[in-house]
Specification:
Blueprint: H1 7-14, H2 19-24, H3 30-39, H4 49-54, H5 77-91, H6 117-127, H7 142-160, H8 173-191, E1 196-199, E2 205-210, E3 213-224, H9 228-233, E4 239-245, E5 259-262, H10 267-358, H11 367-381, H12 388-396
Antiparallel strand pairs: 1-2, 2-3, 3-4, 4-5
Helix pairs in contact: 6-10, 10-11
Length: 402
């Protein structure tokens, strides 16, 4: 979140009215406005400032208004130029299609990049703004000032306790050079529109947001002190180099695209770090364009294969469902015919038993009750005796289309 306002205008605003009122101008909360002030290193009134200002008490507290740190206003032209170019190139791509949507036709492959990497590098170098040379930076960035203040507190602490484990790092010549190196990079990053943040209270970690990428960086000095043999036989001399790394881990610092070592430190060193980062981003973008198209082609083949499998499975399921339906109908018919034949057999049995009872000279005990039950059972299982409602329910089990 940011506001379209200069640091000076933001400073004047937050000291002219309470944060809650000032925040409403940008439709944000006072907490968010406070974070913006912190990120842009704009001092704001402390808690109780406005209540104290309105107090009529003769003993009210006198607040000291801190000055606005003299920092260059960020030139977001370069960072916006890079970001907008990639946004426009991404929107202009004609090779993108949804591999899972088979109605979305496969597009032609992406055209080859006409601009060579050397030409791209030159264009980026030409677009790089004119920044202040490190030697001309006379103001300490608030982050660097915070590092220096902590280092000075260690100096004072060691005067009280010489056995203190923590030692100051920026008081000797090498430390002052490291502080200058750090200050130059931070000031240049912010001048280019890249925000810099500090993490940690004792062990500091420095981060910058470059083209939506949150990267940790580290600066240090290397001292080369050759042995007497190397001096005499190999002609090596004592020298010092200025180092920058896109990492905070000493163990992984080695020569490569994440590490830089400069014999002389100037603006060209900072320019090289940023331009190399853009070049790396460009290579990643070009590689991504090619890889994403190949991925979409493979994903489309998989989608077609999956679709064909689904059709096959659906046809097989339909065939099995039809077989089961026909088997169910056949079973219903067979059961109905069997029940009808069974009912006829029961009736024949009834007639046989009645004829036998009539030929007897005495009444057959239980005959009448059995005949009644047997006739009722035969009528119950005989589908020819079903009511219309029962027939409709039975016929619906055949699942015949109307």
């Amino acid at each position: 979140m940011s506001v379209d306002i200069t640091r000076q205008e933001l400073y004047d605003l937050v000291w002219s009215e309470p944060m809650t009122h000032a925040a409403k101008r940008f439709d944000i909360s006072d907490v968010m406005l406070g974070r913006i002030c912190e990120d842009r290193h704009v001092p704001r009134p402390p808690r109780g400032y406005w209540a104290n200002l309105q107090s009529k008490s003769p003993k009210k507290r006198q607040f000291i208004k801190p000055p606005l740190p003299e920092l260059p206003e960020p030139d977001i032209g370069f960072s916006r130029y890079i970001s907008m170019e990639y946004k426009q190139r991404e929107e202009a791509r004609t090779d993108i299609f949804d591999p899972k949507d088979l109605s979305d036709p496969v597009r032609d492959p992406p055209p080859p990049f006409m601009e060579s990497m050397d030409a791209f590098r030159k264009r980026i170098e030409d677009a790089f703004p004119n920044l202040i040379e490190p030697e001309q930076i006379k103001v300490l960035h608030p982050i660097v000032q915070k590092v220096l203040d902590y280092d000075l507190s260690l100096v004072a602490a060691r005067k009280r306790d010489r056995y203190l484990f923590s030692r100051p790092e920026y008081q000797d010549e090498e430390g002052k050079l490291r502080l200058h190196l750090l200050n130059a990079f931070i000031m240049s990053f912010e001048a280019l529109g890249f925000g810099v943040t500090l993490r940690g209270k004792k062990y500091f970690h420095f981060f910058t947001t470059i083209f939506s990428s949150y990267k940790e960086f580290h600066v240090f000095i290397k001292e080369y002190d050759p042995s007497s043999f190397e001096r005499k036989k190999l002609g090596k001399v004592k020298r010092r180099t200025f180092c920058f790394s896109w990492t905070g881990e000493y163990e992984v610092i080695s020569a490569g695209d994440m590490f830089y070592e400069f014999e002389v430190f100037n603006l060209d060193c900072i320019k090289r770090v940023i331009v190399d980062l853009v070049i790396k981003k460009e290579k990643h973008f070009r590689d991504w364009v090619v890889r994403s198209y190949k991925y979409n082609l493979e994903a489309r083949e998989q989608a077609i294969e999956w679709h064909e499998k689904q059709i096959k499975w659906a046809a097989e399921a339909k065939r099995k469902a039809l077989e089961n339906l026909l088997a169910s109908r056949e079973k219903l018919m067979s059961e109905a015919v069997a029940d009808m034949n069974h009912a006829d057999k029961i009736r024949e049995l009834i007639e046989t038993m009645q004829a036998k009872a009539q030929s007897a000279n005495r009444p057959v005990k239980g005959m009448k009750r059995w005949v009644g039950w047997a006739r009722h059972h035969a009528n119950t299982i005989d589908p020819r005796h079903m009511s219309l409602e029962s027939f409709e329910a039975w016929a619906s089990q055949f699942k015949l289309k109307h």
